[in-house]
Amino acid sequence: MRSAAYPFELAYRLINMFSIKDDIILDPFLGTGTSSLAAMISERNSIGYEIDFKFKEIIENRINNLRDFANSYIDDRINSHVNFINNRIEKKGTTKHHNEIYNFPVVTSQEKTIKINKVKDLNQVSDNEYKVSYYINDYDNLEGAISIEMPIFKKETISPTQENDSLKTKNSVKEV
Ligand SMILES: C[S@@+](CC[C@H](N)C(=O)[O-])C[C@H]1O[C@@H](n2cnc3c(N)ncnc32)[C@H](O)[C@@H]1O
Q: What's this model's pTM, rounded to 2 decimal places?
């Protein structure tokens, strides 16, 4: 089956550049569901339309695998930042800013408070509708990223600021 699926990275980057958490991403030509998947991993709501019923199973399989895919993608994203910043510091010296959550250097002040919440759970609420919950305040889930060997960074313990994780993002996939 031809799908002309977009690379996940492309959808993820565009969604993160041009929307904020809790926004609604609309894809009128959903295909294999890449934009809804990227939205779910980025704490955005999403609505998708797909005329070809053959894609339903593919989309469902991708969504059912969301948690593992999302969390390893997020780990990779953090790890690649750490590699990038280590190389940059080696070549250009230390940066001006520091991310308060992950406790590693960042280049711009906008990156100081970025926290990428991992997917906690996925619930199917109706035939074509899913809800995703995230580890909003679970700082233990940052451990994978923080425990990377970073001799130039100071390692600190970070405490949760609020008690409860909340069911944060609703995502839905619809067909016409
Ligand atoms: C280029 S593909 C989208 C690929 C998608 N971005 C992905 O990553 O898989 C375009 C999709 O639009 C669907 N499509 C075409 N006309 C449509 C319509 N009128 N309503 C809903 N979907 C439609 C096609 O079946 C096809 O799956």
A: 0.81
